[in-house]
Design brief:
This protein has 448 residues and is α+β, with helices and mostly antiparallel strands. The protein has three domains: 13-64; 65-170, PAS domain (Beta-Lactamase, 2-Layer Sandwich), CATH 3.30.450.20; 293-448, Histidine kinase-like ATPase, C-terminal domain (Heat Shock Protein 90). The protein is 53% helix and 19% strand. The chain is built from ten helices and twelve strands. The chain has helices at 14-64, 83-89, 93-96, 107-119, 165-238, 243-252, 255-287, 299-313, 334-351, 407-417; strands spanning 68-73, 78-81, 125-134, 137-149, 155-164, 295-298, 319-323, 329-332, 359-367, 370-377, 421-426, 432-439. It starts with 13 loop residues before the first helix and ends in a 9-residue tail after the last strand. Residues 53-99 form the PAS domain. One of its GO terms (molecular function) is phosphorelay sensor kinase activity. InterPro entries: HATPase_C_sf, HATPase_dom, His_kinase_dom, HisK_dim/P_dom, HisK_dim/P_sf, PAS, PAS-like_dom_sf, PAS_4.
Length: 448
């Protein structure tokens, strides 16, 4: 038998109890460490998922962009790009990353890009035009470039966003074409409204022309008869008739009265022709396209012309009360202002068609180098719902087929182009009142 006697462990020994507590503590710590490790692993996996989602979101945005997106370092080496550049160059992102962006630029643009990189730290670059080498040749590209910094504010590189100029030029061309079509349509609308206003004057102008033309026509018939008698008398003189025969012939044909009437017939004929000329000149001035430069004209004459033509043509027996100076010069196109006044007078007359005693009051005064013209009717006035919309295009209170809805809108634009203002309101004592202002000038066109 061995002389060695084995140690007998007693659980009642204090040292043994301390060792067990230590192991329990170690195991507990290991459990806590494992739990922390599991939590950390879960958090890392969640962060990875979020990072993958963010990366996927970022990539989807880059790929969805039609514009070229390039991220470069400070030397201009491509670090990341999108599919727009891949489509233009015909290369994949893997083939593009790590290569200087200048490799894909035309020779004249390389130096421009280097200068761009040098100035980028001071300020962003906007709308810089470069030529990109593509499989289809050189393609003009408009790029915007912004600096890229780290969290400490140190410059890391640049971000370039570019768009092929072909698309921009096409968009600009379409925009210009649309603008030209809109301008042409506007000009046609203006001319259409002018012709519509001119149509309203045809009856009045025809009546106005008929008076002097009839006068001239009658005078010419009288002159024709007088000419026949005078020719007969002078033939008798040349035929050697006696003095007594000539005297009797002169009395029978009343040649002395004819000779006295000749002067008045000629003067009356000239006066009628002058009146026809004035009417034609006013009509031509109104119907012209007014492509000439602005010139001084007498606003009083234009007002009287518009009143005369509309009131003559109107079926309503309208009384016109005028307070106008002898002359008042303004600068602009007389025909265009005539169109405005015809429209205002015509609207006023239409508004009073149901009035028992229609009265149109017209006043003109000059204050602070500005001409103030007001036209007031005694009609029913303007409804509260219509008042704010009167100058809107195509808005009209007239029945269908009676108005284009463009008259006041175009009139407002014409007055504005002449440096004036046009307004419509209800008069406190009833009826509507139109108020137009224009800068006053002298006969030479100089501002007063």
């Amino acid at each position: 038998m061995s002389d060695i006697t084995p140690d007998i462990v007693s659980f009642n020994d204090p040292e043994t109890l301390n060792t067990d507590d230590a192991w329990v503590t170690v195991i507990r710590k290991m459990d806590e460490a494992y739990a922390d490790l599991v939590r950390t692993q879960v958090e890392v996996e969640e962060k990875n998922t979020q990072l993958e989602q963010a990366q996927s979101f970022s990539n989807s945005i880059k790929d969805a962009m039609n514009d070229v997106l390039i991220a470069c370092d400070q030397r201009g080496v491509i670090e990341s790009t999108n599919r727009a550049l891949e489509r233009l160059t015909g290369l994949s992102e893997a083939a593009l990353v790590g290569r200087p962006f200048s490799e894909f630029l035309g020779e004249p643009c390389i130096e421009k890009f280097q200068q761009l990189s040098a100035t980028l730290a001071q300020e962003p670059v906007r709308d810089c035009e470069v030529e990109l080498i593509s499989p289809n040749g050189h393609m003009p590209l408009s790029i915007n470039c912004s600096p890229r910094f780290d969290h400490r504010g140190r410059l890391l590189g640049m971000v370039l966003v570019g768009r092929p100029l072909g698309e921009l030029q096409r968009a600009y061309k379409e925009l210009n074409e649309a603008h030209a079509e809109l301008k042409l349509a506007q000009e046609r609308l203006v001319q259409s409204e002018k012709m519509a206003s001119l149509g309203r004057l045809v009856a009045g102008v025809a009546h106005e022309l008929n008076n002097p033309i009839s006068f001239v026509y009658g005078n010419m018939h009288a002159l024709e008869r007088y000419t026949e008698r005078l020719t007969t008398y002078f033939d008798a003189v040349n035929g050697g008739h006696s003095r007594e025969e000539l005297r009797q012939m002169r009395e029978q044909m009343r040649l002395d009265k004819i000779i006295r009437d000749l002067g008045s017939l000629v003067d009356g004929t000239k006066e009628g022709a002058d009146r026809v000329k004035e009417i034609v000149d006013d009509l031509r001035q109104f119907s012209s396209t007014q492509e000439t430069e602005k010139a001084p004209f007498d606003l009083v004459h234009v007002v009287k012309s518009a009143l005369h033509w509309i009131i003559k043509e109107s079926k309503t027996d309208t009384q016109v009360l005028q307070t106008l100076p002898e002359r008042q010069w303004v600068l602009g196109h007389a025909g265009q202002i005539h169109q405005v006044l015809v429209n205002l007078v015509d609207n006023a007359v239409d508004a009073m068609q149901n009035s028992t005693q229609p009265v149109l009051t017209v006043e003109m005064v000059v204050k602070d180098a500005t001409v103030h013209l007001t036209l007031r009717d005694n009609g029913p006035g303007i409804s509260d719902s219509s008042l704010p919309r009167l100058f809107e295009p195509f808005f009209t209170t007239k029945p269908v087929g009676k108005g284009t809805g463009l008259g006041l809108s175009i009139s407002y634009g014409i007055v504005s182009q002449h440096g004036g203002e046009l307004g419509l309101a209800n008069h406190p004592q009833g009826g509507a009142v139109a108020h137009m202002t224009l800068p006053a000038v002298n006969e030479e066109g100089e501002h007063a």
